[in-house]
Design a protein that fits this description.
The protein contains 6 helices and 5 strands, in the order αβαβαβααβαβ. With 132 residues, it is an alpha/beta fold.
């Protein structure tokens, strides 16, 4: 799992990509650090999708962040219900989805799940509403 707070994360990603940067970046945590990381490590003419809301505004420098790099950035607050089956298929077939999920809770432990989520010391949290 990538930690945007890791001081070496940018150099590690750039080293892994041969100093080119990533083709596309999907940010779903809703943290300013992760959003900034996406901009910094996306290659020229790459794509960024921001889907996590954080309630704060990211400082963007239009020219160096987007114009000179030719990056396309989009945001999405919700998805089209027509695509939900395709999305679920991708999730179900992903070889790395288990690495993204760090906690699974029954609905009776929702307060604990919310506290862990608020701490940002987690990946994705799954709630099982049919379990106590």
């Amino acid at each position: 799992m990538l930690d945007p707070d890791d001081p070496n994360i940018r150099s590690e990603i750039m080293q892994y990509t041969g100093s080119i940067g990533v083709d596309a970046c999907l940010e779903a945590s809703g943290t300013l650090e992760a959003q900034r990381l996406c901009i910094d490590v996306t290659r020229r003419k790459g794509q960024i999708a921001l889907i996590g809301e954080c309630g704060e505004d990211l400082a963007i420098k239009a020219s160096p962040d987007f114009i000179r790099k030719g990056i396309v950035m989009m945001g999405q607050w919700h998805y089209n219900l027509k695509g939900v089956f395709k999305i679920m298929k991708v999730i179900c077939e992903s070889p790395v989805v288990e690495k993204l999920i760090t906690h699974v809770f029954p609905m009776s432990r929702i307060q604990e799940a919310l506290e862990i989520s608020a701490s940002h010391d987690c990946g994705k949290i799954i709630l099982k509403p049919w379990e106590d």
